[in-house]
Design brief:
253 residues; alpha/beta; 11 helices; globular
């Protein structure tokens, strides 16, 4: 089976027939823990009735098709750490989210409030990435007149290793630090993340928390996998970083 790592937006409109057809063709849809968490903590659950029902559709699509789906419990940093510790224990599990989905499907709009949704605070990481993009701009200005000719991938690799090894310290696993990144397992993410930082530095736009989920979800895409998203910005990111061959849409076009 060839894995298709899915973005959040896929689950709002995909049909049971599409999922079964993909499975018959040898594709297996993959949902990571951060995507399950994004759906579970969606503010659309209490915004209005229409948005509430839309989230319930996504939850229902996942619950009805569990047999066709591969769930990855490891968060992105844990997933990268599994390169040096294949037995690493995840900090979350898909069963928690699936159980919450069942509860929400039985709820009526207005019975849920923001207080019911336990959303982790990742604003610190978002701020750090935004600050890093400013440094990339300074580095590019210092080292090159031509933006495209300035190589930043080594800086991006170092940045990712800082994230991962900081996570390792929090886990207190006693493992050796991650020294090298595995491009066979995480190459799409590394290259796309580098392109994102370059885009941010060039445009002076700021990353928001949801963008963090989108980009780090790419960490699950191995060299033989595909990535499925409907977001034009993420498709553009793949095209600009010359990793468009990972896009599911391009596999059949």
């Amino acid at each position: 089976m060839r894995n298709i790592i899915t973005d959040t937006n896929i689950w709002y409109s995909i049909t049971n027939e599409e999922i079964a057809d993909l499975f018959e063709k040898g594709y297996r849809l993959v949902i990571s823990s951060i995507i399950l968490n994004e759906i579970y903590t969606s503010r659309n659950l209490y915004l209005n009735l229409k948005s509430f029902e839309a989230v319930k559709v996504a939850m229902s699509n996942i619950l009805k098709n569990q047999n066709y789906i591969k769930f990855i419990d490891l968060n992105p940093l844990e997933f990268i750490l599994s390169n040096i510790d294949p037995q690493i224990e995840p900090s979350t599990n898909s069963k928690f989210f699936l159980d919450r989905f069942k509860e929400i499907l039985n709820a009526n709009f207005g019975t849920l409030t923001d207080k019911d949704i336990h959303r982790g605070d990742i604003s610190g990481l978002t701020t750090f990435i935004n600050e890093t993009s400013v440094k990339y701009k300074e580095e590019i200005k210092t080292n090159s007149i031509n933006f495209k000719s300035c190589e930043t991938i080594k800086s991006t690799e170092s940045l990712i290793k800082i994230y991962v090894n900081d996570n390792l310290q929090q886990l207190n696993k006693g493992l050796p630090i991650l020294v090298d990144l595995d491009y066979d397992k995480n190459g799409f993410f590394i290259i796309a993340f580098d392109e994102l930082l370059r885009e941010l530095s060039r445009s002076e736009q700021k990353l928001v928390d949801n963008d963090w989920v989108d980009i780090f979800n790419m960490a699950y895409v191995g060299k033989n996998d595909l990535y499925w998203t409907k977001e034009k910005s993420k498709q553009r990111l793949a095209n600009n970083s010359k990793t468009e061959h990972f896009l599911y849409e391009n596999s059949y076009s």
